Automatic annotation (TrEMBL):
Name by which UniProt lists this protein: Amino acid ABC transporter permease
Transmembrane segments: 35-61, 81-99, 111-129, 215-234
Top-level lineage group: Bacteria
Protein location: Cell inner membrane; Cell membrane
UniProt keyword list: Amino-acid transport, Cell membrane, Membrane, Transmembrane, Transmembrane helix, Transport
Lineage: Bacteria, Pseudomonadati, Pseudomonadota, Gammaproteobacteria, Candidatus Tethybacterales
PANTHER family: L-CYSTINE TRANSPORT SYSTEM PERMEASE PROTEIN TCYL, MEMBRANE COMPONENT OF AMINO ACID ABC TRANSPORTER
Length: 248
């Protein structure tokens, strides 16, 4: 591998195209850590946004008026405001209201760090769209199906988990796929509150090496591949779950 890394150093000396994360071990570690952080943040946000979507869609069908109003209010707030403003709101407004915790060296640190606030904010942002996506899928399930389940003595929660949701998921997968892809791309906003994800680490590298152009090309290709893998996985899942004659 050393010969491979050294080749990029020689390549830089002869062409001026500088990719230090390929020949410098320090920059390589920074970039790799940023890549892993992007993956981890994406997984956490994807998981919680889907949970929020599922729970929100179920609550939207609640017989209680105020429960439905609360869910609708949440959707309107997060759908009608920019995700960067939401991120700043959580980090700078809510974060400063929380108590501090004592560190090992006797100082004080915020109860939640920048990663936690990024995960919370982006999960709520994508979750608001997921609620509407799952709701549209639930409404597409034939009424006769749920009525048959009611006749068999299923409770409302059992109908949702065992009858409505499995059918609704097959209907909403294309729209859910698009929203989750947008969520992965939106994780770059975490850069604004210093979460050391891929864009943040790339910024550190181009600040040290003055190679903005090369790092921009690398970031474009890296996100293209990352999102491409997610799209491939979701498309495969969509084909596997497809029921002939339903949802198409």
């Amino acid at each position: 591998m050393e010969a491979f890394y050294e080749w990029f150093r020689v390549f830089y000396q002869e062409t001026g195209i500088n990719l230090p994360f390929l020949y410098d071990s320090f920059d390589r570690k920074r970039m790799f850590d940023g890549f892993l952080m992007t993956i981890w943040l994406s997984i956490v946000c994807l998981f919680f946004s889907i949970i929020i979507g599922l729970v929100g869609a179920w609550l939207q069908g609640s017989p209680f008026k105020w429960t439905r109003r609360l869910v609708n209010g949440y959707i309107e707030i997060f759908r009608n405001t920019p995700p960067l403003v939401q991120l700043y709101f959580f980090y700078f407004a809510i974060g400063t209201l929380l108590p501090k915790v004592e560190t090992d060296w006797g100082g004080q640190a915020p109860l939640l760090g920048s990663f936690a606030w990024a995960a919370i904010s982006l999960s709520f942002f994508a979750g608001a769209f997921n609620v509407e996506i799952f709701r549209s899928g639930i409404e597409a399930v034939p009424k006769s199906t749920t009525e048959a389940a009611e006749a068999l003595g299923f409770s409302r929660l059992q109908i949702y988990k065992e009858v409505t949701l499995p059918l609704a998921i097959r209907v909403v997968l294309p729209a859910l796929n698009n929203n989750l892809v947008n969520l992965v791309k939106t994780t770059t906003l975490a850069y604004a509150i210093a979460v050391p994800e891929m864009l943040y680490e790339a910024n550190q590298i181009w600040s040290d090496n003055v190679n903005v152009k090369e790092m921009m090309v690398f970031l474009l290709l890296a996100y293209f591949l990352l999102v491409g893998v997610l799209v491939w996985g979701m498309s495969k899942c969509e084909r596997k779950l497809q029921i002939p004659g339903f949802g198409r």
